[in-house]
Amino acid sequence: MKAITIKEFGGPEVLEWTEVEDPAPAAGEVVIDVAATALNRADVMQRWGLYPLAPGTSPYPGLEASGRISAIGEGVTGWRIGDEVCALLTGGGYAQKVAVPAGQLLPVPKGVSLIEAAALPEATATVWSNLAMTARLEHGETLLVHGGAGGIGTAAIQIAKALGARVVTTVGSPEKAARARELGADVTVDYRTEDFTDHGPYDVILDVIGGEYLQRNVHSLAPDGRLVIIGLQNGLEAPLNLAELVFKRASVHGTTLRTRPAADKAEIISEVREWVWPMIEDGSVELVVDRTLPLADAAEAHRLMEAGRHIGKIILVND
Ligand SMILES: NC(=O)c1ccc[n+]([C@@H]2O[C@H](COP(=O)([O-])OP(=O)(O)OC[C@H]3O[C@@H](n4cnc5c(N)ncnc54)[C@H](OP(=O)(O)O)[C@@H]3O)[C@@H](O)[C@H]2O)c1
Predict the structure, then answer these.
(1) Which stretches make up the Enoyl reductase (ER) domain (predicted)?
(2) Ligand 1 and 149: CB distance under 6 A
(3) Is 177 helix (H, G, I), strand (E, B) or coil?
(4) Ligand 1 center from residue 20 Cα (angstroms)
(5) Given a cut of 90, is residue 319 above it in pLDDT?
C-alpha cells in the first residue's frame, strides 16, 4: 500500500507519498481500506517532531479515517468485511489501509457520506470526552470554547448547544465569528481585539491554547468552574494565582485522547455512538468541512492548516 510518510522532521515538504508495508489485523483489530482521513493539529506537531509517539504507534500521521473493513482479526465480533465505518486512530490514517482496535469503530451516521465521516471521530470523541465525561457540562451552564472556528471548536459549539449550554467562543476574524454564530454560539469574542474575561463567568472552559491563557481562564471561571486544557498552542508554562482556584473551588483538568489506553477510547467511542451520533443524524450537529484534497497532497493540506485560515475540518481523500 501507499502512505504519507515523514521523511524527516520539518515543514510540509517532508511529507512523502511512499510505498510501505500493508498492516495486518492483530487480535481484536480490523483493517480498514481507507476512503478518507482528516487533518488534526497533532499531525502538524508530529511532522515538526513535537509529538513523541508511544511504542507501537503507526509512524504515519492520521488520527481518524473512514472506509470499508477489509480484514478482521481474531476475537472481533459485530463487524463484517465490507462494512462502511469511521474510526478513531492512534496514528496511520494517512494511508491506503490502517489497522484499528474494533472498539474504536463507529458506523457512518445516516445522512453523512463515507468521505465526510472521516472527519467525525477525533473531534466528536475529544469534545464529548472533555465536555460531558470530564467537565460534566450541564443544561443551562455557560461554556467558553477557545478557537470556535477550528475542527474541535466547530464540534464543541454544536455539541454544547445540543446539551443545552450557553456558548461563548473566541475567534480570530469576523468571518469566523459569523460562522461560529451560525453554528449556535451565543457570543463571539475576537481574541485579537477583545478580552474573553469580560464575557464570563464561565462554568466550563475548553482551552486549546494553554500558556498565558491559564491565569485568565481561571480568573473568568464561576464558582465550582471546570477548566479543561487540551491544547498548548501558546506555551507549556504559565503562572497561576492559586487563591482564585481555591476560593472558587475550581478545578483544572488536562487530557489527551491519543495517549489514552484502548479501553478508555472504546468507552468514549461507545458514548459518542450513543449520544453524539443521534445529534448528527437529527441535524442538531453538522460536520463543518473547509475543503477536501487528495491524500497525496497532504503537504498542501498541512500548509493550509498552518496558515490558520480554514474553518472546520480539512479532509484528505484516497483516490
Ligand atoms: N488533548 C486532546 O485530546 C486533543 C484532541 C484534539 C485536538 N487537540 C488540540 O486542540 C487544538 C485544536 O485542534 P484542531 O485540530 O481543531 O486545530 P485547528 O482546526 O487548527 O484549530 C485551532 C484553533 O485555535 C484557535 N486559536 C489560535 N490562537 C488562538 C488564540 N490566541 N485564542 C483563541 N483561539 C486561538 C484558532 O482560531 P482562529 O482560526 O479563529 O484564529 C483555531 O480555531 C490543538 O491545539 C490540538 O492539539 C487536543
Answers:
(1) 10-316
(2) yes
(3) helix
(4) 31
(5) no
Residues 76-132 have pLDDT tens digits of: 999 999 999 999 999 999 999 999 999 999 999 999 999 999 999 999 999 999 999
pTM of the model: 0.98
Q: List Cβ neighbours of 303 (8 Å cut-off, separation of 6 or more).
A: 12
Residue ranges and CATH numbers for the domains of the chain are 2-120+287-317 (3.90.180.10), 124-254 (3.40.50.720)
CB of 41 within 6 A of ligand 1: the answer is yes
Give the residue whose CA is nearest to atom 45 of ligand 1: 231
Q: At residue 208, what is the residue type?
A: V
Distance CA(100)–CA(88), nearest Å, equals 8
